[in-house]
Amino acid sequence: MDSSLYIHIPFCKRRCGYCDFVTFAGFERMIPEYIRAIEKQINLVGEGNQIKTLYFGGGTPSLISPNVYKDVFTCIRNNFFLLPEAEITLEANPGTIDWHSLDEYRKLGFNRISFGMQSAIKNELDLLDRAHTPQELNSAVSLARDAGFANINLDLIFGLPGQKLSDWKFSLEKALELDPEHLSLYSLIIEENTPLALKISQGTIQEPDDDLAAEEYEWSCAFLEKAGYRHYEISNWAKSSQTNDFRCKHNLQYWHLLPYYGLGCGAVGFLPRDSCRMSTTSSILMENAKWIGRYIKSINLACESREVFPFIQTVDRSYEISTFMFMGFRLLEEGINPVDFFQRFGVPLDEIVGEKIKQLLSSNLVEISPEGHYRLTRQAWLVANRVFREFVDE
């Protein structure tokens, strides 16, 4: 069974005001030791299985030079079989790259790049504590094209405090002028203990308008459909044709609940039963320490004992069914195939969650596709969490 690798690079020049991810600013001195720990973890878990996608996320992976990543790629190839056609993604912030570095990333094997655009309006970027300007984003995309990247994703955030619908339309229209192969659009979530949450609690800025965010999402769906983008997941759109499918293969691995390794601090992985030597009796979760120093220490201790189990835990069948269901419902076209469910769990889907499915069908939140799959209805897209919650405790 083909697997995926996620490698977390937590370093940032500056932490964004809304960010609740495992990221750290001002810790660049730890990069060499951290990269060595990544390589050690690869040595611990690698067993020669095929890798179909490789994703460097963050943080800001583009802060690290291509020369440093050369050793990581060598380590990966020594422990896994990286397929020649593998999708290999680098997350990058505009302003952290130039043509030379992009050219070197391409030569290493990166064939997909994801830029954190977030907005095309300077004041909104300032609100989010982003370190780049709209002009730097435009330049970064142009440089990536010149370096040979033919698969570019742009991340944008809507539902910002004080945002008007016209502001969001402007940003998304500017994004389309750059002709990206893929778009990820996320509604702003105000996370506790972030600088943005503090400003809202102090009344410095107003709270986001949920109704406006819903209107922005609805407009985006119609606008991108008209522009020819395929809305294949709640928050993701891709160009697609008979010859090119630009859906994110790495994220599809997550949503299909197929095996993926999580490497680096705070990274999470999932390995179904019998997908590797660590999961011979049950499916397992990989979950690494969230602090850089603690992660490095845990990997060093694991290497001393040749023991990978400090960062894995087994998961029971009910957890796996629950995750399979709400991940599957994120896929707007595919939904959930009852045949896949039976092949995975050995029992009919209706026998386990049939009553919940009936309720969702009668509420017009779920429909049956022409292929016989269960998927969200159009009206459920804005309230998808109501559907997901039905399966959390399954």
Written account of the structure:
- This protein has 394 residues and is of the alpha/beta class.
- The chain has two domains: 249 residues, TIM Barrel, CATH 3.20.20; 60 residues, Arc Repressor Mutant, subunit A.
- 40% of the residues lie in helices and 20% in strands.
- It is built from 14 helices and 16 strands.
- The chain has a nine-stranded mixed sheet, with helices on both faces.
- Strand 7, helix 6 and strand 8 form a beta-alpha-beta unit.
- Helix 1 packs parallel to helix 2 and helix 6 packs parallel to helix 8.
- The mean pLDDT is 94.
- InterPro entries: Aldolase_TIM (IPR013785), Coproporphyrinogen-III_oxidase (IPR034505), Elp3/MiaA/NifB-like_rSAM (IPR006638), HemN_C (IPR010723), HemW-like (IPR004559), rSAM (IPR007197), rSAM_sf (IPR058240).
- It holds the Pfam family HemN_C.
- It is found in: Cytoplasm.
- Its main location: cytoplasm.
- Probably acts as a heme chaperone, transferring heme to an unknown acceptor. Binds one molecule of heme per monomer, possibly covalently. Binds 1 [4Fe-4S] cluster. The cluster is coordinated with 3 cysteines and an exchangeable S-adenosyl-L-methionine.
